[in-house]
Amino acid sequence: LRSIPSLSQFRRLRYLWINNNKIQDLTFLIKNYYLTELYLNNNELTDISGALKHLCSLQILFLHNNELKKLGKTVKELKGMISLQTLSLFQNPLAYDPDYRLYVIYFLPSVQLLDRKLVTQRERESALHLFNPKRAWVMQSIAFGKRVDTSLGTTVGSSRCTQPARRLIMPSVLKWFGNVQAMDLLCSFCRVPFEDPEDAVLVRATTRSLMEFSSVDWNKVATCQERRLKNKAEEPPERLTVQFR
């Protein structure tokens, strides 16, 4: 088939297989809002702009082995499909873009299976770092206080009255390893046999960032009027800084 007449009379059509044809135009789907599965693979599609964005209920979409060339334009057409979970775009010219997979993962967050391969959390994080580094930095840094990037047991310079970070005691299971790198390798496994549950708690604590909180006694800080009336130089307010994991 090279073309298909309008399917507008089938308003409640949900599943449609038209793969393995020579279709180049998709305007015949303009009224099929209820579609949940659409198989268009192995055709001659070069552009899907304006043809699929109204299919908000679509969950499965196969578009592999076509002639789609513009990655940004294609993904923009699919952005409104908030229910889309399975998508295939491989064997299209756009799939040769070096950032193709991460681009699709970032701009189509609902997709869980892309090109017959499950989308992993690591891929989602990589996509966020690549296409929105500012938000990635905020997500890594935001907390109740301020994040300080330091390794375990190091001393961080700060203002007066600062408490040093509490050094955690290594659990017994980590005595098998001689350095922090080995400990990180151990912590990366999901299931580690701990004899004592407190060991697991301490291992998790060692992977946390060092947090820093600062406070000032505002009762000892002069107001604008008091500063104008005083002739002597004002000392900077004393700040209390506490660090912990």
UniProtKB/TrEMBL annotation:
Pfam families: LRR_9. It comes from the Eukaryota. InterPro entries: Leu-rich_rpt, LRC72, LRR_dom_sf. This is LRC72 protein. It comes from Prunella fulvescens (Brown accentor).
